[in-house]
Amino acid sequence: MKSVFSIVVFIFLLMAGCDSETLEQQTVKKNRVPEKSLIKANRYLVVQEQHDIDNYVSRHHWKMKTTGTGLRYMIYKHGNGPRATKGKIAVIDYTIYLITGDKVYSSDQDGPKVFEIGHGGIESGLEEGILLLKVGDKAKFVLPSHLAYGLLGDEKKIPPRMPIVYDVELKVLK
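RE: above sequence
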């Protein structure tokens, strides 16, 4: 009789243990931020960033076009070389500014950027912008953070969620 009772208690505890949440699961569930709140907060941050970019462009009196991804661009000197295409190696002179006006990188200090167009490894907004240019063109690009260094920044000079401004000249296509 004792052994039957022990078996029944053991089975009951085993079944009860399978259905209950662990303390860790309960804590995670309790501290979870509702998905709708995260979406709302992200939308707010995106709208705020767009407002900041609008103000920056307006203060500089730039006549910029905007692509579907949010890249703003202005070609202020037209070259007469071939158009940039995927698969070509681009060589650019550049200066990068934060929208606070701080200069953070330039080809004068770091040398020209050399990259294969369409291969990645650079900011997606820069790659998109280069495809709008011909050799000899000079342009300004304003990259929203999602086309630049995103949520983390570059962990050096570009802070998290920071739009950046590129002043570029497409020097060579190989």
